[in-house]
Structure formats: C-alpha cells, structure tokens
C-alpha cells in the first residue's frame, strides 16, 4: 500500500477514476523483477468491462530497492513490458494534463 500513498501515483489513479475507470485492486499476475506492482482497472464507460493494467516499474539502477521510476499501461495482464500501449515517467505525472493523458489511453483501450 505504500506505493499508492505517493501523491503522483495517487493523482494518476484519481485521474483514471474520474475518466471512466474503477480500480479493482492489485493483480495477482506473476511479475518481472522490475515490476513493483500491477494495478487492475475495469472500464465503467462503454464498452463496460474492458480491463486496463497500470504497471509500476522499478528504477533498475536502484534494484533491489523498489523505487518507482515509470508507469506502464497495458490492456492485458502481462509479465513483460512488451505489451505496454503507453508509459509515463513518475516525475512527469504532475506536469502532465492527466485528463488528456486519460483520453489518449481511453482512445486506445476503449476504441472510440
């Protein structure tokens, strides 16, 4: 739960919750060593029930410390970063228009 207390990650989660997504919880997917956590979301907008996975990625330079550096987005539970449709650097979250960022993800995942 400590990772969710980071104000940047919390801002990102809140933005997705305001833009058609409900946080289901943490995925129990087997993850790579550089994944700190996978957060699962389900769409509340049409089409309802679509899944989105937000992957908190560890800064590889500081491993084994789980210091988050980047967040990846995927439509499927994954155990590699090959399936990310988009990513954002942790330090860029508060400098980004999160509404537009969510709209961009929605256009890719919800296909409207």
Q: Give the overall shape, derived from the CA principal axes.
A: globular
Helix-strand sequence: HEEEEEH
What is the average of the pLDDT values? Answer: 89
Lateral strand order in the biggest sheet: 1-2-3-4-5
Termini separation comes to 33 Å
Total beta strands: 5
Secondary structural class? alpha+beta
Helix content: 10-25%
Task: Tell me the radius of gyration.
Answer: 13 Å
Strand content: 25-35%
Count, helices: 2
Walk me through what this model shows.
A five-stranded antiparallel beta sheet has the order 1-2-3-4-5, with helices on one face. A hairpin with an 8-residue loop joins strand 1 (21-26) and strand 2. With 112 residues, the chain is α+β, with helices and mostly antiparallel strands. The chain has helices at residues 7-18, 98-109; strands spanning 21-26, 35-43, 51-58, 68-74, 86-89. It contains two helices and five strands; from the N terminus they run H-E-E-E-E-E-H.
Strand-helix topology:
Elements (H helix, E strand, L loop, with lengths): L6 H12 L2 E6 L8 E9 L7 E8 L9 E7 L11 E4 L8 H12 L3
Summarize this structure as a short list of keywords or feature phrases.
single chain; 112 residues; alpha+beta; five-stranded antiparallel beta sheet; 5 strands; 21% helix; globular
In short, what is this structure?
With 112 residues, the protein is an alpha+beta fold. The protein has two helices and five strands.
């Amino acid at each position: 739960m400590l990772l969710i207390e980071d104000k940047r990650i919390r801002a990102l989660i809140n933005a997705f919750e305001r833009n058609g997504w409900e946080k289901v919880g943490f995925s129990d997917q087997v993850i790579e060593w550089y994944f700190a956590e996978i957060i699962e979301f389900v769409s509340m907008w049409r089409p309802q029930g679509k899944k989105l996975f937000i992957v908190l990625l560890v800064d590889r330079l500081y491993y084994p410390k789980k210091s988050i550096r980047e967040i990846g987005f995927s439509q499927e539970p994954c155990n590699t970063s090959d399936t990310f449709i988009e990513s954002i650097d942790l330090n860029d979250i508060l400098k980004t228009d999160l509404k537009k960022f969510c709209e961009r993800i929605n256009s890719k995942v919800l296909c409207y």
